[in-house]
Description:
Layout: H1 12-18, H2 25-60, H3 68-85, H4 89-105, H5 113-129, H6 135-149, H7 164-169
Helix pairs in contact: 2-3, 2-5, 3-4, 4-5, 4-6, 5-6
Amino acid sequence: MTKFKSFKPEKKLKKRVESPGGVCLKKLVERADANLEAYKPRALLGVGDKIGQIEAMVMKLNDSEPGFSEKLHRLSNEVYAEAGTFGLPSVSKAAFSLCELVSRARGDLKPQRKRLLVHVLTMRLFKSYADDLPQAAQDALLESLSGLVHKLPPVPPPEKRKNDDEDKSAPEGATGSTLAA
């Protein structure tokens, strides 16, 4: 029988912070912030490019193309994450709403073309003019997007297990599955 071996990698950052004369945690955070700020212009260009890709996809809207909905959802999710990380919360929220719309459409996007386009144009507007738009106006636009999405039925939850044998063998109140020895 093989003996269990444990491997614990050395954590260089921990060692640098804990050692005498090591780097102060505050300085590490400041460096990380500076690195993010240095990357921000390039990241924001990337957000704009992805919004452009989403717009091009919505304009040609070929949801019969394999993976079309998944690609649209993935790009929207990337905009959501990157815009939120780099200080564009309204763009991030609009992208999240677009993700929700794509999910609720369940692959049938053609009837949703106008809703998709409104989302794309709102993301462009927020990316270009968020500093000039009052927060109340941004909130109203986001609420309108949410209203467009919520006109569609929600995504159904995953189906419950269909194997009743497992449920009968489990003690009352037990959750999850068990493995036989």
